[in-house]
Amino acid sequence: xxxxxxxxxxxxxxxxxxxxxxxxxxxxxxxxxxxxxxxxxxxxxxxxxxxxxxxxxxxxxxxxxxxxxxxxxxxxxxxxxxxxxxxxxxxxxxxxxxxxxxxxxxxxxxxxxxxxxxxxxxxxxxxxxxxxxxxxxxxxxxxxxxxxxxxxxxxxxxxxxxxxxxxxxxxxxxxxxxxxxxxxxxxxxxxxxxxxxxxxxxxxxxxxxxxxxxxxxxxxxxxxxxxxxxxxxxxxxxxxxxxxxxxx
Length: 248
Prior knowledge:
This protein is mainly beta and 248 residues long. The protein has one helix spanning 4-19; strands at 27-36, 45-48, 55-57, 63-70, 72-80, 83-93, 98-106, 184-187, 190-195, 198-204, 208-209, 221-222.
């Protein structure tokens, strides 16, 4: 059993290490790729977080990334000129980790333009010329998700449409043509990756670990306080000891 002086030294070292944690380690990020009408990112397309000083203008690759976000839930807006073309709500961010959205695929005829700023003639939009009185079945929105059948890869499911956030369920939620898109998935106290509808844990927050190998409960062990897994999985403290700051 450690002496009072030894425990005091450990506490002081722990507090010093906490004070040394950089601001970057207390923040997270969001990353993804825009595929707009098959063009990638349009010249001048802005992706931003409302109310925050975060904005990205995509290049031809359509890739974007936001860093320096405090842990929490965010909404991303996609704007071309004065028109909001799409939005993604409820994106969760963990400190020290980047949430991967995969491909955000959507299309809008009115916002479509070529890379030189003119009207695009090289690509035929997938969206038909629909009017309020149109009887064309491709102009209908059977599932009420705001996307007409011509653009929706599953017009019978309101959770599946171009621009939806991809989830790990073995389904192409965002109509990008790829199932699951290898997106990052948040788990308890950590993050995992999706592959063919199954999640595997790739990273745990500092002080936590996945000791039982079960994805359902995530990184379930608090290594700082768990007497049976003190500092590392399987490191059990003696009967006369208790775990504190990861030490018995």
